[in-house]
């Protein structure tokens, strides 16, 4: 399973892939066309198999795991 860093955090539970995540965000119908998101940059990370005890699924470990996945090389 993958997660993506855009400016929001997305967990790809259905394994639809990076381009499909981008399309879902950009082509979604938002009430009254109040926003028009355009994805400029996107990073992905393999997060392994999803389960209830996954570090991204827990308040006490989510931030640290996010930082490990996306900020370790920045």
List its salient traits.
16% strand, 3 strands, 74 residues, single chain, alpha+beta, 2 helices, elongated
Summarize the structure.
This protein has 74 residues and is α+β, with helices and mostly antiparallel strands. The chain is 30% helix and 16% strand. It is built from two helices and three strands, in the order ββαβα.
Description:
- It is a single chain.
- It is elongated, with a radius of gyration of 14 Å.
- The two termini are 22 Å apart.
- The chain has 74 residues and is of the alpha+beta class.
- The longest helix is centred in the C-terminal third of the chain and has 12 residues.
- The chain contains 2 helices and 3 strands, in the order ββαβα.
- The model has no long low-confidence stretch (mean pLDDT 89).
- It has one domain.
- The chain has a 3-stranded antiparallel sheet with strand order 2-1-3, with no helix packed on it.
* Count of helical regions: 2
According to DSSP, the number of beta strands is 3
Q: Major β-sheet, in short?
A: 3 strands, antiparallel
CA radius of gyration is 14 Å
For this structure, the quaternary state is: single chain
What distance separates the N and C termini? Answer: 22 Å
Derived structural class: alpha+beta
Number of domains: 1
| Major β-sheet strand ordering | 2-1-3
Proportion of residues in helical segments = 25-40%
Order of helices and strands: EEHEH
Instruction: Please tell me the overall pLDDT.
Output: 89
pLDDT < 50 stretches: none
Shape: elongated
What percent of residues are in strands?
15-25%
